[in-house]
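hi!! sorry for the late reply, been swamped w classes. u asked for the two structures so here they r. pasted raw, havent cleaned anything up. first the sequence of the first protein and right below it the tokens
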Amino acid sequence: MRTALRESIRNVGIPAVAAGALAVAFPSLPLIGGVLLLASLIAFAAWPMLGWSLVVLTYPFIYLQVFFGETMNIPYVDLLALLTFVGVAIRVVVNRVRRRSAYGLRLTAYDLPGLLPFLLFIAVAALSLINVEDVAAGVKFLLRPLTFSYLMFVALPVIVIDSPRRLFTTFRIMFLVGVLAAAMGVWSLLSPPEPGAFRRAVPIIVYGMTPLGTNHNLLAEVLVSVVPVGVILALFTGERLRRWYVVGTLALTAVALLTFSRNGWLTLAVEGAVLSVALARDRGIPWRRIAAATAPIAAVVAVAISLFSFTAVARSSNVNRLRLTEIAFAQFREHPIIGAGIGTFQEAVARDKWYIADFGKPQEAHGLIQKTLAETGVLGFLAFAALLAAVVAAIIRTYRSATVAPAWRFILLALLCTAFGSIVFQIFNTSYFVSKLWLPLGVAVAAVRLAVQGIALRRADTGFQ
């Protein structure tokens, strides 16, 4: 009996106690994850700007992802945005229960330009599901990324960025992200990932990961959206730091040019044109003089893009884009009103045997025009275009308002360049439903709201003493 008892203790009791002790000392990964998520929600509810700062810090690194099992993954920026959004919602509920002011929720439709076109676009996208075989996948695409992008990267910054100080904190983090991206480009020039190939600034591999992806366009699209932000920081900083922001902004521009991204070159030219035209109109310079001054720059950019387009490096990209455009318009012709259904373009590419034979794997449409026309038809395209136009129009309207202070007008002008540049870039790229497009637009909308409210921009608000 005693022997059996000893064996039971040795074979069952001791392992059970040891397992319990190990479980307490080293909890399971899901438990750790759950605790971290709960702690993040509490922290972001108490300090929403903390969550938003982390969102901005990670916004272009969409290839840094957290995996839940083998089938579910989400970029860190999306996860942080979701946690911040939920944290803000918790804060609002708690404040209402405690009868305090509703943090950041005094919003009107005017504070969220493009809200109506966005709702129309979502309605058309939902209607396009009648042409989708896998409705569940279509609904998932409708919620994320379509609905998710506007809520997390347009509505959320408008709620959180409720003061000039928070706006300038956002600017400084964006500039830091731009410097990190530019550093990757410089490193790729000094130590190219493919020795012997055409040398250009590209994203790099960091500890086996590709935070920005691998394509040169993915680096350029970050830099061109941050360059105008660098101009803002250079203007509003003190004399000692101004030279560093000027040098940093010039460095971002140089690296963007060294990506040899035709999208990047075109976007920088558009941003320069917007800035030139706005400043010229403010000074009463006639349109003919504006055109005469900008024509040489436009000609140089056009010639550079044309010459590079005929090189061996660009020829394969040209053929790829042309074939993707043909597939997109084939989808559009089959369903011209509401499209072939959201999330179906890559499926159509996968069915094209010639494309797969030439390029290996299906890719997204290289341009938001092709994407929206193919998947949501003319109705979806018009609604999406109206959404982007409403955001740009809100910036222009506020910029031209006589009641807006000169300092705010310059900030809005720079953010107008960022908005125009981000949109133009996506006419030829594939980041139309992710943070890299929508976060710069959301920051611009937040600045519009602050400018409309007539909040005085003090030197202390900029963070520079």
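now the second protein. again sequence first, tokens right under
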Amino acid sequence: MKIYLASRFSNRFELRKIRDFLTMAGHEITSRWIDVDTRPSDNSEELKKFWMKWAKIALFDLIYSELLILYTMGCDKNPSRGGMRFEEGFAFACNYPIIVVGPKLIVFDYLDTPKYCDKWDECFEILSTIKPKSLLKFKE
């Protein structure tokens, strides 16, 4: 299954480990942002260009995916900038399955549609029950 991993930028190192595990399990991870090592630190023109470039890449990666996993651990401290919530909203609007690993942080976390879990093991268990849309047969 093609999976997009979403979280705050500082969680990318942990998500690299999760990507490696999921890849070994036969999934394709579309989130290229987790391989970015650094970003410009000041509010310069360089930072604006950086964000513009990665917003476009992330949107392409989202469109290419079939499922979103949102990792919210540590996102309740120093409020996130909202990128991961845009990604979740996009996936929701596209009717992608969504799994959230970590605490519920905003009002939309109380909808029934996303699956919620506290640990990665629970996420992997939920993931094993979801069939990729490319394998679903449509009846006329």
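hope this helps!! also noticed smth abt the second:
The chain has four helices and five strands.
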